[in-house]
Amino acid sequence: MCNETCANFISRWKLWIRPLFIATYALAALVFVPLFLVKSLEDGFNRHDQEVLIGGIFVGVAIPISLWEIIQHVIHYNQPKLQKHIIRILWMVPIYAGNAWLGLTYPKASVYVDSVRECYEAYVIYNFMKFLLNYLNNEMDLEANLELKPQVKHFFPLCCLPDWEMGREFVHICKHGILQYTVIRPLTTVISFICKVFDVYGDGQFKGNVAFPYLITVNNISQFIAMYCLVMFYKASLAELQPMKPLPKFLCIKAVVFFSFFQGVVIAFLVYTGAISSSEPDADGLSLSTRLQDFLICIEMCLAAIAHHYSFSFQPYVRPGTRQQSCCSAFLAMWDISDVHRDIQEHIGIVRSSISRRIRGRSMYSIPRGTDEFSNLVSPRGGQSVPASFYQSEYDDFVVNYGTVTSSQPVQIHNTDPGPKPI
């Protein structure tokens, strides 16, 4: 009888999870805030303690809002192809806020915690791209729809670039223009971490003998390309995206990811030039710029959590009376990053193939359709019939499909070069 009562109580967890969540958080606040105040008063409650307290208040408001929205999406997990990416985007606020507060509290550990935030920036951009693509592909044949649209022109000052042909080429360029940031950002983060270990990074120093200005330049260029591709894709698909109110979502992503990055660069430059200085005699430029950035992010994440609550709300996915997916499977699906692995593998293969073709002077070829994320990147020819979605150039020795590669279907390349033709 007791086991049945417990099982029934657990099965109705959706009814008591909200009051439990609120009570637990309130209890934690009532315990840790007084302890922190007592410790700060013992130390004299200096400026660092004040920054930690104020930043902690904003973080304490931001994290529950985001976690509650995540829980609601997990409960009403009715559209996995869309909500999986929304949940990943919503995790941005807790990760950014917690990361910034830890860096503010423990400045010496900021080198390690900042690396997590920098890598998650690229992950958020990737998931936003997948969210848009999945939404549009659920409603229509995206490539065919774009082929019927008027040509989208480049923005100033890039209006001199050749137009991206509407349809397959346009989707391909936008997708891989965003994917390159997903690859480059973690790579530069690893390089910067190694440079910090060997004391050659020079954080906040715009000098030629340190790595900081070079890595900042690479990140700026990569981020600009990703942002430009997002804007171009938004411009081309604005009418189709209107039902899901895309503008607030675009502003949330760009404000959090891109603005926070450029904000850090501007702060580092102002501190380096002396435009911003500290009255504390033992504060160097590095600690000052890092503290300012972390403190501002703590405040900004509170605003971002409120914006995400309205922009990525769970309400459109509530389906009363429908059989919902179990919350456990929804939670596990949220952490399944096999789609990221497939798309990055595809992107690296495309870049490698493009470089190889340019080195060998091969002619350009048309870009086939391959929006299905479970299709192969490379398909063997070898006397077999080639599906319509594949393209074979008369100069190519393999067949390319711009889908992605599943782990169960290995990439195979069959050489079909017949050798030199007889004279």
Automatic annotation (TrEMBL):
Pfam families: Solute_trans_a (PF03619). SMART domains: Solute_trans_a. Its main location: membrane. It is found in: Membrane. The keyword S-adenosyl-L-methionine does not apply. Keywords: Membrane, Transmembrane, Transmembrane helix. This is Transmembrane protein 184C. It comes from Sitophilus oryzae.
